[in-house]
Amino acid sequence: MNKNRSIQLAIEILGGQKKLGEITGTTQPNVWKWLHNKQKVKADYVPLIVKATNGVVKACELRPDLPELFPPE
Fold first, then answer.
1. Could you state a single Gene Ontology molecular function term (predicted)?
2. Of 6, 37, 58, 59, which is the most buried if we count CB atoms within 10 A?
3. Three-class SS of 3-48
């Protein structure tokens, strides 16, 4: 199965799916869905993930389908 590389990197940086869920105010099962491309990261969560990873994970990588909100860098 194809994993979302940006989410996988965020999980590695933050120390786990549960921690990423806590930072975004969602649950670990939702993070698992993001990781396995079963669900898209909500646009509201994107800036939280970028900030938590100190910009290592880019907004445009998390939601490339929303270039008007998160333009490519």
1. DNA binding
2. 6
3. CCHHHHHHHHHHCCHHHHHHHHCCCHHHHHHHHCCCCCCCHHHHHH
Q: Is 53:9 a contact under the CB 8 Å cutoff?
A: yes
Q: Cα 62 to the chain's mean position, in Å?
A: 5
pTM of the full predicted structure? 0.94
The CATH class that applies to domain 5-62 reads mainly alpha
Tokens of 7: 């989410």
Average pLDDT, the chain: 97
d(CA 46, CA 34): 12
Instruction: Tell me how many degrees the CA angle 8-36-5 measures, rounded to the nearest 5.
Output: 30
